[in-house]
Amino acid sequence: MSSKTNKYHVALDSQGYLLVGTPRQPARKMERAPVFGNRFASGDRDYTDFSIWWYWAQTDWSGGFKDDTAWADDTKYYYSTNIDTYSEIGAIKLSKTITSVNNFDQNLLCGVSVSAHNNEYVGTEDDGTSDKPIVWKSGASWSDVSDSDLTTDHNFIASLFEHKGNLWVGVGGIATADNIARVEDDETWTDYTSDIATAMGWAQVLSARSFAEVGTTLYVSVDDFSNDKTGIASTSDNGSNWAKVVEYTNGENILSQQEYGGDLYYLLDRGNTLELHFYDVSASADSMVYIWRNSTASVSTYTGDRFMFNKFGKLIITVPANEIWEWNGTTMTRIYAKDSTKDAIGSYAVADLLSYGGAESNLYIHWGNLIYDGENFYNSIRDINDSESNILYPLYTDSNNNVNYVSSGDRTHLYEGTSTYRSGSDKNWIVFNEIDEVSTIDKVANAVRIIFDPFDTAEEIEVYYSTDGGSNFTLLGTASATLDGTSITQKTFYFPDTTSFRKLVFKVLLNGDGSSTPKLCDISLQYIPAPDYRYQWQLSINANDYVNLLDNHVRNKDKGIDIRNTLRASFLSQDIVDFEDVDYNETALNGALSASATTITVDSTDGFPEKGRIKIEQEEIKYTGKTSNTFTGCTRGYRGTTAVTHSDNTEVSTKYRVLITDFAEQNNILNKEKALDYIITLNLIEI
After folding, report:
1. pLDDT tens-digit series, residues 480-532
2. Could you tell me if 350 and 339 are in contact, meaning their C-beta atoms sit under 8 angstroms apart?
């Protein structure tokens, strides 16, 4: 039951109070609580006019997409496909196209460029038809250099490596010969399998998985998997003599080797852990540097030793299948972790394919749709056919520093980049979100402006937006040479009226005819915050002894000092209390209420306005009409509350939840001894 009833002007915390005017202010004042303070979004502060519209902008695309760091302006990178954000700071462009350079009969596993031979080489796996893997070399056409040297007991070419101007081949299978060989003059095959077995003290070597070069010494990882043995052997005289470096006898697997700082590092897979080991060449001493526990070390079949790179002054380590780390000689740091939440978008969009390893070029390290420049990560290209389920991954870098790729869907094709740009695809996207830190605040969008380089013929930029987190996108507008000519450099797109959002996701599609690329340089959003507005009040409370109430002048039983002390105690304790304002009214539900109902049946709507707000427990509801016992046209979960079910006879009212934010008092000394007249001024703010 109301504490205010017809006896008091207002009520706070189940206590009614009378209001009184003062010479300088009215008895009651209500206004909207302020919402504008510091700018919500982080980033640039160079915008000048926030009196109506607020602004967000992205002018620098060079920050990469590591999720724990923002771009240089306001946005957060989400993903991209076939978009180049790395080669030109301040512009996003189309990626170059990829084309097939050859089709092989077997799946490709590894590759290398040997400068002394002026050839590239690729290794395959047995496809069950020819019953042996093959090493192919490029030239006027691709030709076989190994078929006669291998037997049907060989299953795959595990690794290809250049050392002292010659090609070295590591082979896997169950054969006891021709597993580690040096190829000279593109045709002379020299087998060192038995020499290495002798150096290791083994009866046999069944495969060679990886190579590394430290100074003039060659290191090769070898296996006798039938006896659970693995290790590393070395030669410093091009194969004439071999020495055992390390050995393991419990079924371990050496995934990769790499020189760093003049010493040898290698990855040792123990099944449920992955270890980075350091072999001090001068001291002939081995030690473990780091361990990744509960690592599956999941790798794709016979990956060709592409998991560690000595680049950017650091050792870059791929930890299959989800992470990339770097070692600077003293500190190990994780620099990339696959975001499993983005997998739902589709593997074509964000897949990194770390289980296939990578390849390095002059400026970058490449994985599937992933590039690292020593500071930041970027997405790059997707599958040659824009497949939803496949993606390109790098096989090796050729003598012209071009990365050569294989598709995860069909590994018989070898692809490389061209000088033309992608065209005619709906997968040339960059996707990013806006105002991520304040995604709980409602906002009203007005317009987007883009700035770009002048278009060539057939170039276009399409801007899409999503208000549901990227599940569905709506085309906002298109800028193109066809629509706008070739001289404009900016265009503004206006949102449909009443477009509101909490977090806005943008998708920009670039297209051209292949001869050139549009360049998007800047994008800005014009919006205004539209939070759940709250109110604040200033009340002047009459706190006199035995003051007359509103119902026929009945006297209040409380003394003025007691009223004053009650209010001051509520202020000092910072309690959140119920507030019944001057227009307060209440009734009760007549029947249980579901969370989705838009008509609310109550005992009576007498005294309620024709349209307004009501509160049932913690839920606020807006209504647009009423009958004698129903509220109609209801918007449930109004002003940021949550629509829930409510039981029969639950109170329905217009109360507010408030905090007393300020307390002041003034009083006049009356002639009557010891009698005080208090006027208490309260500031309330709705929460």
Report:
1. 999 999 999 999 999 998 898 888 899 999 999 999 999 999 998 988 877 77
2. yes
CA 298 to chain centre: 23
Is residue 197 classed as helix, strand or coil in its secondary structure? helix
**Which helix (DSSP H) or strand (DSSP E) does residue 632 occupy?**
strand 630-632
313 Cβ neighbours under 8 A, 6+ residues apart: 328
CB 231 within 8 A of CB 180: no
Q: What whole-number distance in Å separates Cα of residue 621 and Cα of residue 650?
A: 14
Which of the pair, 43 or 563, is modelled with greater confidence?
563
Q: Which of 280, 216, 208, 194 is nearest to 245 (CA)?
A: 280
Beta strands in 82-185 (DSSP E): 83-84, 93-94, 96-103, 108-114, 119-124, 135-137, 143-144, 154-163, 166-173, 180-184
Cβ–Cβ < 8 Å for 422, 93: no
Whole-angstrom distance, CA of residue 464 vs CA of residue 434:
13
Structure tokens at 447: 């317009």
What is the structure's pLDDT at 148? 87
Residue 93, Cα to own-chain centre: how many angstroms? 21
Question: At a CB cut-off of 8 Å and minimum separation 6, what does 239 contact?
Answer: 182, 190, 192, 195, 218
Q: Mean pLDDT check: name the lowest of 64-78, 125-139, 270-284, 597-611.
A: 64-78
Residue 354: φ, ψ to 5°: -65, -25
Q: Helix, strand, or coil here: 234?
A: strand
| CA-closest candidate to residue 113, choices 416, 380, 419, 418 | 416
Positive or negative torsion for Cα 416, 420, 424, 425: positive
Alpha-carbon span 397 to 113, nearest angstrom:
7
Provide the residue count of the chain.
687
Sheet containing 370-372: which strands, arranged edge to edge? 359-360, 365-367, 370-372, 377-378
One-letter-per-residue 3-state SS of 47-74 = CCCCCCCEEEEECCCCCCCCCCCCCCCC
Are 305 and 110 spatial neighbours (Cβ–Cβ below 8 Å)?
yes
For strand 83-84 and strand 443-452, is the pairing parallel, antiparallel, or unpaired? unpaired
The dihedral through the CA atoms of 373, 378, 380, 383 has a sign that is positive
| Cα distance between residue 257 and residue 267, in whole Å | 7
Contact yes or no for 156/167 (Cβ under 8 A)? no
The architecture (CATH level 2) of 96-421 comes to 7 Propeller (2.130)
- Domain coordinates of the chain in residue numbers? 1-35+535-579+662-687, 72-87+426-529, 96-421, 585-654
* Distance from the first to the final alpha carbon of the chain: 22
- CATH class for the domain made up of 72-87+426-529: mainly beta
Whole-angstrom Cα Rg for the chain: 37
Q: Which amino acid is at 124?
A: T
CA dist 65 and 336 (Å) reads: 10
Domains 72-87+426-529 and 96-421 share a fold: no
Q: CA 613, CA 531: separation in Å to the nearest integer?
A: 17
Q: Please state whether the peptide bond connecting residue 479 to the residue before it is cis, i.e. omega within 30 degrees of 0.
A: no
Torsion 62-65-66-70 (CA) sign:
positive
Single-letter residue type at 630? T
Q: What tokens were used for 40? A: 């919500």
Task: Give the tens place of pLDDT for each residue, 422-461.
Answer: 998 888 888 887 655 567 778 889 999 999 999 999 999 9
DSSP string, 645-680: -B-TT-EEE--EEEEEEEEEEEEEE-SSTT-EEEEE
What percentage of the chain has pLDDT greater than the value 90?
A: 58
